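Per reviewer request, we include the raw input and output of the structure prediction for the construct analysed in the revised manuscript.
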Amino acid sequence: METFEVSLKKLETIVAQLERGDLPLEDSIKIFEEGMRLSAECKKQLEEAEGKVELLVKRRDGSMSKEPFAPLNTPR
């Protein structure tokens, strides 16, 4: 598996190629499929990283506790 950064850079390149609109249909389909694979790989890596992140929360009594990371759009 490639690093997130490498996959994202490849995905950005594919998007730029598709946006130009100068590729033959077969080539466009081929790189679109590769882009979808890379997109899914990036999403998986982000979800795995999210699961590893923990926030330290300071309690009223001054002690610290761990809480699982919750993205901004997910209620805790």
